[in-house]
């Protein structure tokens, strides 16, 4: 464990840069466009092929970062999923179209209230560290459940809360919680109509605001664990592609520099804090033609319901929920998986995966493999797998006691991490690079997307100073818990 001068665990500053592809950050650093991030990479450990979860989608990945659990166990499996109990598709929202087709109020309610309160099944770092006497501060990060209540501050939200079934007057979070104009533990003067972010300020939920509040928290040394989230690099890639994302990395670098400056400069911050900067998933450029959109509604035909209002009505055998470059398929009880077995032959569908008892099976390019944890070759993450079938299905090589992943990093662990829960569906599809299943609205991102099992959108970068760099996003929370363990022995020391 890294300690400060008093022998206590150092405070941790964690910055999550949504959707920044590792190669994009490397190019920006190579071009001299990201000096602050370059300095952090140089001072600590930089990992360029760390691995996201599957589906590699923001809600699932951010939940994995702060709980240490894959989607099957965190309960947060994507932008949208089918809730069998409620008989409806739950949408957290990815694009404006999705929000409108589902109803803005409902999506907002799902995103801000239900995701953390009702659907998240695993404890967050904010909850677990609090038990050690270590308090957290969170800016804009979507998964923030914690031991403290925070009242809604935005008048328009307040006026809706308390009427009907939607919204609420409070949410739970860490000791300090900031989400644009909606929640702020202390009045920073950075929110409101005259706040940061210009015309497209999205009720104050923007990266400029995140940087300014993050800077203030670090200047004040406000919390032992500070988590600041920047999401705009992801939406820029979706709409304008990776070249635009690279230009935006320059902006993100200025935000990182602003926070470091507020803390007294790089040297001082690294003396006092352990710093971790990472992305939650990568990005895969889409093909320019229209056919980049794999339209499940068309492929599956009338037997399937697809979309934000899908459900098991008369004649419907399956509900399909697209999640960018992955898709979750739910079958009516008694309907066999065979109804979708020919899907992997379709253009744009790379692989299909499902579970039978303890075994998970993947079909790709006419090949098949089944696997389960057991005695067998060990992968690079120390997991042993019992295999049946062709390892080439997932571009893996088995060499004696060793299993090496190729184009699908941590493929077995990640597939199992999704298939473990029925919430992820009976069959999960992953798209071929260049293709996307789009959103529940029926629309799709134009330039770039993510969600698949493929390295292209699954690899993330991690820069870690004062802490060992995790190789998987699910390793972040266990590593931070270990880092702060000492505080449990000496409560109240931070
Ligand atoms: Zn995205």
TrEMBL record:
InterPro entries: Alkaline_phosphatase_core_sf, Phosphodiest/P_Trfase
GO MF annotation list: hydrolase activity
Protein name: Alkaline phosphatase family protein
Taxonomic lineage of the native organism: Bacteria, Bacillati, Actinomycetota, Rubrobacteria, Rubrobacterales
